[in-house]
């Protein structure tokens, strides 16, 4: 079963613009979560925050992301991708702009919470919409932009923070927080005119409208019989959280949450440890540490490029299994040789970044491919919400571990967590390459066709 008008379409201007527009959410995610860490020094000084209150300000967006993922994923499956596609950005624009004018700590905490909700809401909205429009042979390549742009957003935050501190000092924190408004407005404008997902329209009983959207967008007529075959079972409930915890979907959501978390926790460990590593080369002191962290994020972005090719040639399953296996090795070496020369440490760090590209892309690719249209956004929202615990662990426990347990033990813990991800991939990773979303998201996936040998006929 396949939506051939979309699945076999050539990649054109519409697909590239949609990928750019949908990547705006990850760009803002990376930027907003990065910029607050830089601004906290100035915020704490001006508002006289103690350590606990500063931590609450820093974690407010993560808490908001937990609730945003749980609530707005199911809503997106019920009311549509297009409707939510711009509403969440309006909330983000308003909250970012108001952050420049806060006078009380509670105001900043509330606004950061709202920003987190909006960011988490955007992931299931934008990634589901993008997935449902992409040709099947190009999903991994186009999804690479989503994860790369997250690292670019974080790198941009540290670069902007570095420049603002150089010009205005720590007192420029209001301009740092307000700068995200410009990015959000640009993404909002880019999204104007985006059509609704035809797959969602079919799942909602609006097949005729879906045919019109496909023909007007791609210039391809769609047969009614093809659309009828895509309709979900009559008993299927749109946006049902309960559906994610039954049958094969329970196994899939467990797999996604485990491998997603096991990729995030060591990532945050290395991003926390990264400025100290670069310090051995003279880039980790004072405001230069912000510039060094920007470089770190760009290295991770580059690691996605070779993975993009492997996901489409070797396949998802082999790539993610080997990626996790190879990601363990640099962490083990860092644990055993924590006082290695700076050049060796940076090389090991770059190797980890290179190997992490496959899981990084599939953090958003797999949850969109492994679930059907009527619960796709709910699945992505659930994955975002539950993996925020991993983000919190990476943000708060890694620095504590570095102080109390030391670098070596921290790297060994990271290697152990990564190995758990490897085991989960060996046990549960499915191959979705070159398959339609209706096939990969089915509760009983169809077997991949066996290629004909020479001399055989279909």
Q: What is this structure's SSE topology?
A:
Elements: H1 4-7, H2 13-22, H3 24-47, H4 51-79, H5 81-98, H6 105-133, H7 139-168, H8 173-178, H9 180-191, H10 198-203, H11 207-218, H12 224-230, H13 247-279, H14 288-313, H15 316-336, H16 342-355, H17 357-369, H18 376-404, H19 407-428, H20 437-440
Membrane topology: Multi-pass membrane protein
Protein name: MFS transporter
Main location: membrane
Description:
- This protein has 458 residues and is an all-alpha fold.
- It has a single domain (4-194, 232-440), classed as Up-down Bundle (Growth Hormone, Chain: A), CATH 1.20.1250.
- Helix content is 76%, strand content 0%.
- Helix 2 (13-22) packs antiparallel against helix 9 (180-191), helix 4 (51-79) runs parallel beside helix 6 (105-133) and helix 6 crosses helix 18 (376-404).
- The longest helix has 33 residues, at 247-279.
- The radius of gyration is 22 Å and the shape is globular.
- Residues 448-458 have low confidence and may be disordered.
In short:
This protein is mostly helical and 458 residues long.
Structural class: mainly alpha
Total domains: 1
Can you count the beta strands? 0
Q: CATH topology, which one?
A: Growth Hormone, Chain: A
Order of SSEs = HHHHHHHHHHHHHHHHHHHH
Helix content: over 70%
């Amino acid at each position: 079963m396949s939506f051939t008008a979309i699945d076999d379409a050539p990649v054109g201007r519409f697909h590239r613009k949609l990928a750019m527009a949908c990547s705006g959410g990850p760009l803002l995610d990376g930027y907003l979560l990065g910029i607050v860490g830089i601004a906290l020094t100035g915020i704490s000084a001006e508002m006289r925050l103690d350590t606990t209150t500063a931590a609450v300000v820093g974690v407010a967006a993560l808490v908001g992301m937990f609730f945003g993922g749980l609530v707005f994923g199911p809503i997106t499956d019920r009311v549509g991708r297009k409707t939510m596609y711009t509403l969440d950005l309006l909330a983000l624009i308003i909250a970012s702009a108001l952050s420049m004018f806060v006078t009380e700590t509670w105001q900043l905490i509330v606004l950061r919470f709202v920003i987190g909700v909006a960011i988490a809401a955007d992931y299931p909205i934008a990634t589901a919409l993008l997935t449902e429009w992409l040709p099947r042979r190009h999903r991994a390549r186009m999804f690479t932009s989503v994860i790369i742009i997250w690292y670019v957003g974080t790198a941009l935050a540290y670069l902007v923070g570095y420049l603002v501190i150089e010009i205005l000092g720590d007192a420029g924190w209001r301009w740092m927080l307000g700068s995200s408004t410009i990015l959000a407005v640009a993404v909002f404008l880019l999204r104007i005119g985006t059509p609704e997902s035809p797959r969602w329209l079919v799942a909602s009983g609006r097949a005729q409208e879906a045919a019109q959207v496909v023909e007007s967008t791609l210039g391809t007529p769609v047969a009614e019989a093809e659309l009828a075959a895509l309709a979900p079972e009559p008993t299927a409930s749109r946006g049902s959280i309960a559906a994610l915890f039954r049958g094969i979907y329970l196994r899939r959501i467990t797999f996604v949450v485990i491998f997603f978390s096991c990729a995030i926790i060591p990532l945050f460990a290395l991003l926390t440890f990264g400025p100290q590593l670069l310090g051995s080369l003279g880039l980790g002191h004072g405001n230069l540490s912000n510039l060094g962290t920007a470089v770190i994020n760009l290295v991770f972005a580059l690691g996605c490029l070779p993975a993009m090719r492997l996901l489409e040639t070797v396949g998802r399953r082999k790539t993610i299994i080997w990626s996790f296996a190879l990601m363990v090795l640099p962490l083990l070496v860092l644990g055993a040789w924590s006082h290695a020369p700076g050049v060796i440490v940076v090389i090991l760090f770059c190797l980890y970044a290179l190997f992490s590209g496959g899981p990084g892309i599939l953090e958003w690719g797999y949850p969109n491919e492994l679930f059907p249209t009527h619960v796709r956004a709910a699945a992505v929202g659930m994955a975002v919400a539950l993996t925020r615990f991993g983000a919190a662990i990476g943000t708060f426990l890694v620095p504590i571990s570095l102080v109390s347990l030391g670098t070596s033990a921290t790297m060994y813990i990271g290697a152990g967590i990564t190995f758990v991800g490897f085991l989960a991939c060996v046990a549960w990773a499915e191959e979705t390459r070159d398959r339609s979303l209706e096939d990969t998201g089915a509760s009983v996936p169809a077997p991949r066709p066996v290629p004909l040998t020479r001399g055989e006929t279909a």
